[in-house]
Amino acid sequence: NSSSFALRLCMLLRRVHRLSTVIARSRPRWTSSSLSSFLSSPAPPLRSMSKVRKGRKNRSGPLSQRRPGIQIASSKVGGFGSSSSSSSSSYSASGSAPAGAGHGIVFTKALGQHILKNPNIVRSIVEKAGIRASDTVLEIGPGTGNMTVQMLPLAKKVIAIEFDPRMVAELSKRAKAHEHGHKLQIIHGDVMKVQLPYFDVCVANLPYQISSAITFKLLAHEPAFRCALLMYQQEFAFRMFAKPSTPLYCRLSVNCQLLADVRHVMKVGKNNFRPPPKVESSVVRIEPRIPRPDINFMEWDGLVRLCFSRKNKTLRAIFNTKSVLKMLQDNYSTFCSLNNIVRHFVVLTD
Questions:
Q1: From 230's CA, which of 11, 59, 246, 314 has a CA 20 to 30 Å away?
Q2: Parallel, antiparallel, or unpaired for β 281-288 and 227-233?
Q3: DSSP annotation string for 319-337
């Protein structure tokens, strides 16, 4: 009995020794940088001892390949969807990199940064723009330059207006490596505050939150451009070219069609962007009317705003409200004072 007990004790000690060896080998070799990154990240999920034994044969490789939950994403230069020019590492305890981390840039949705990554759609938009060799092309929000590099060989000059300094640096690096990079001019600033230069064609993937403001700033630009191909939220785009007596016909439809010929070009799914937006998109072609209507656009827009303020009311009911009558009376008084006209005391009542 004593001999069998000693034999069992020896076998147990050998198993404990083997188990301690396996645990010691499975621990990573820590450095100061790896230890700080490990402490700042959530703990990885625990593995069973059976998985540890199965993984003993594959112990070679860097620390990032042995630790679960760590991924290293590197960037490459050139090509569509690979926009960054310098490699970077991004660690994620959940095993998934953030949006844009595989390309060295984390895109900000608050700035409307949804990069068009499908090269076929980019090529189709550039072709439908009809860019000539003598044209100056304006691009608003070029991002990483997927569309810019397609337009550089076709145009005489490409002017890109970008607000994000990271995108400006990325676009500059990409242009230096391009054969026609000398044709590119980058303006760093807010498109709503920058004075637009002369251009013949505008091609842009617009930030959706300022679509209306940018559109009417382009239509007010002088001299008038030849055409523009702009990316909008699909619902906004459908309202631009909606026809009368349709549910989508609104003030935007009236003003856009007054100043330009608006046509739908194509639909673009949200999976063609990185990161994908929550809505579908559409490309619209805008050709300004030449000559422009000889009207005061501010007064016209105020009139149209009144007409579409209550879509379920008739125009007679809208213009007979007390607030509208008072506003018309005040405006008439101001007009008479500015033009030295003797005002007739006419009381407008309902």
A1: 246
A2: antiparallel
A3: HTSHHHHHHHHHHHHHHHH
Distance CA 164, CA 16 (A): 59
- Cα 167 to Cα 112: distance, rounded to the nearest angstrom: 13
Integer angstrom CA distances of residue 231 from 113, 115, 137, 289, 294: 13, 11, 16, 20, 29
Give every strand in the sheet of 184-188, ordered side by side.
184-188, 157-162, 136-140, 201-205, 227-233, 281-288, 260-268
User: Poorest-confidence range of 76-80, 135-139, 252-256, 312-316?
Assistant: 76-80
pLDDT band, residue 10 (cuts 50/70/90) = confident
| Cα distance between residue 105 and residue 144, in whole Å | 9
For the chain, the residue count is 350
Could you report the per-residue pLDDT of 282-323, keeping only the tens digit for each?
999 999 999 989 888 888 998 999 999 887 888 889 988 999
**Closest Cα partner for 207 from 162, 271, 266?**
162
Q: What are phi and psi of 283, to 5 degrees?
A: -105, 130
CB atoms within 10 A of CB 274: 21
Q: If you ran DSSP here, which 8-state letter would residue 46 be given?
A: P
CA 218 centroid distance within chain? 19
